[in-house]
Amino acid sequence: MEDPIYFDYAATTPVRPEVVDAMLPYLGASFGNPSSPHRFGRSARAGLEQARREIAEAVGAEPNQVIFTSGGTEADNLAVIGTALAARNKGRRMAAVTASTEHKAILAAAHAVVHMGGEEVMLPTDGHGLVDLDALARAVEARPAVVSIMWVNNEIGVVQPTQVIAQICGEAEVPFHTDAVQAFGKVPVSLSETPCTLVSLSGHKIGAPKGIGALIVRGKGIVEALVHGGGQQFGIRPGTENVAGAVAMGCAARLAAQEQASEAGRLRELRDELAAGLRGGVPDIVIHAEKVERAPHILSTSVPRTDGQALLMHLDLAGIAASGGSACTTGSVDPSHVLAALGVPRDLAQGTVRLSLGHDTTRAHVERVIAVFPAIVQKVRDLAVVLGRA
Ligand SMILES: Cc1ncc(COP(=O)(O)O)c(C=O)c1O
After folding, report:
1. What is the phi/psi pair of residue 177, to 5°?
2. Of these residues, 169, 196, 251, 328, which one is catalytic?
3. CATH 3.90.1150.10 spans which residues of the chain?
């Protein structure tokens, strides 16, 4: 059997060899606690501060605006709940404005704000997943604590008009948070051009290990800490820092920013070839958000009269690893909340396969998926007929 191939980079990525090399010293000789004043501590502190500089530079922020977290989920929670708590402490409205196509980390954090006595406001999206900007303009008039709209959607790849959203929020003096976990390294993320207040990043989507992320916080007193302890990370996220993880993320962020433009071009070409090839073999395949700007690494498809789980199982048997939507909801029988928000019929959403591309994806990989896909679809459709589901 041929080597298995990976088409699930939006779920996670392999750790890049350069990143392993960068982090290894911090699992060895430079093991110190970065808060210790002795030489071991100073060596760890130097690595941590270098990582802050690398991440800041990669997105156009300042090093002291980089708060390390345990990943994208924690960064999202800190942004949404932390701003709500800060607003409450200032006697302001404890409301989070977001959209129904957001990642579960944002939706669940907005629900948590409601449980704390605040409000959540859900903005509608159109059939491509783009947020309704008129509704946003109305929502910010009531001065919520935060607007949180993701830069790139993890299921369908749609790119939100982040710059316009930043402008609307800026004029209303409402903090704007964006979950850039899927955007960073794939589309240009420059905070000097797009002045977001808060930005979530995750290491494992860009070739660093799982369990490290960052929230960029641009301004003082914008977020309240969610965990309490020592004064590390300006008191916003206390706890001894994950130095090796931070160093890994710094290295991965530097590489991702350096390679963004060329990788985006390469992935877009491969993604479009993949889409055309799949459509050639399965003419009624639906490609989501095809008519709007999408990140280059995500191809979300639904195949009528099939079942996504069965398609994924056959793809896996053929040595191809893909996903049904987002990895976090894999295994759940409900069709994706994102496709539901887009108005995709439930039956069609049931036959969804997300193919996501990354650093090691090659044309040969794309050709292999195109070659096996029509027969897999036929098999799943035949089975549906036998089971009386078609
Ligand atoms: C858009 C988006 N936000 C947040 C997350 C959560 O990040 P992490 O896995 O680092 O907690 C993910 C990962 O699936 C994601 O795709």
Report:
1. -105, 140
2. 328
3. 5-12+260-386
HSE at residue 228, side-chain half, CA atoms within 13 A, is 1
Which atom of ligand 1 is nearest to 11's Cα? 14
* Topology annotation, domain 5-12+260-386: Aspartate Aminotransferase, domain 1 (3.90.1150)
CATH 3.40.640.10 residue ranges for the chain: 17-256
Q: Of all protein residues, whose CA lies closest to atom 5 belonging to ligand 1?
A: 72
**pLDDT, tens digit (0-9, with 9 covering 90-100), for 367-377:** 999 999 999 99
Q: CB of 183 closer than 6 A to ligand 1?
A: no
Q: Does the pLDDT at position 328 exceed 80?
A: no
Q: Which fold has domain 17-256?
A: Aspartate Aminotransferase; domain 2 (3.40.640)
Residue with the nearest Cα to atom 4 of ligand 1? 72
Pairing of strands 298-302, 286-287: antiparallel
Q: Is 169 a catalytic residue?
A: no
CA-213 nearest atom, ligand 1: 10
Ligand 1 atom with the smallest distance to the CA of 74 is: 11
Q: What is the pLDDT of residues 330-340, one digit of tens each?
A: 555 577 999 99
Report how far apart, in Å, the C-alpha atoms of 125 and of each of 120, 129, 334, 342 are: 16, 5, 20, 7
